[in-house]
Amino acid sequence: MLVHTLFDLIAWISAAAFGWWVRRHYLREIPSPINYSEHPTYFTALGLGALLGAVILGSLNLGPFELASAGQIRLGHSSAGAIAGGIVGVEFYKKCKGIRASTGLVFVAPLASGIAVGRWGCFFAGLDDFTYGTETVLPWGWDFGNGVNRHPVQLYESFAMLIFLVMFIQRLGYKSSLFCRHGFYLFIVFYSIQRFLWEFIKPYQTLMGRLNIFHLVCVALLTYALFMIKVSEKSHA
């Protein structure tokens, strides 16, 4: 757990550093839809939504009914839940304030870099973190301590988000109108698709066929992002 905590700290530091660097070098010329200093409760809605989403979905994935029947109480946390909860909190805030534009562009680099680094903490935490993959015979399978080689899905996600981060910065450098307008929604599209795929090689309990709770969350996130892109493009047509 100490290693996991260390990587969590590094993830937060890298997220802050990348966020500052990208904002200074690539986002200065892109007008912000809101003045964040004038909307302090925006971050309250974001933080509360992310916290509740992370804990609720992460705990549900642990099988709360089975744990309760055994007299155990265990709270989990989930990055997908945090993203989904943060979106719900922010969209509720925007609805109350009459804000229609996307406000998430500044969070793309911090999120991508934070996940890329943080997943290494999940990897080194081993079986206790409950983020390992199913058994595999592939040469890069990893033994997390019980003699079974498993998919290191934590690293799959880390590398995937690193690829997106590089692509995101590159496209901002070329002043891509698509990424400048829909950067956050494109992040959600990429994140939800890659996470949806990795869920097939995780030993989580399923809800519908081979789909677990995070498959459903990813479908919801993807639907949200595509819908928001469509609405935004229609308004600019």
Task: Explain the layout of strands and helices.
Blueprint: H1 2-25, H2 40-60, H3 64-69, H4 79-97, H5 108-125, E1 142-143, E2 149-150, H6 153-173, H7 177-198, E3 206-208, E4 211-212, H8 213-236
Antiparallel strand pairs: 1-2, 3-4
* Order of strands in the sheet with most strands: 1-2
How much is the average pLDDT? 91
Percent in strands: under 5%
Work out the radius of gyration: 18 Å
SSE pattern, N- to C-terminal? HHHHHEEHHEEH
Q: Shape from CA axes?
A: globular
The helix tally amounts to: 8
Describe this structure in words.
A hairpin with a 5-residue loop joins β1 and β2. This protein has 8 helices and 4 strands, in the order αααααββααββα. The chain has 237 residues and is mainly alpha-helical. The strands form 2 sheets. Strands 1-2 form a two-stranded antiparallel ribbon. About 3% of the residues have low confidence. The chain is globular, with a radius of gyration of 18 Å. The termini are far apart. α1 runs antiparallel to α5 and α7 packs antiparallel against α8. It folds into 2 domains: 165 residues, no CATH class; 64 residues, no CATH class.
Descriptive key words:
two-stranded antiparallel ribbon; 237 residues; 4% strand; mainly alpha
Question: How would you sum up this structure in a few lines?
Answer:
This protein has 237 residues and is mainly alpha-helical. Helices cover 65% and strands 4% of the residues. The protein has helices at 2-25, 40-60, 64-69, 79-97, 108-125, 153-173, 177-198, 213-236, and strands at residues 142-143, 149-150, 206-208, 211-212.
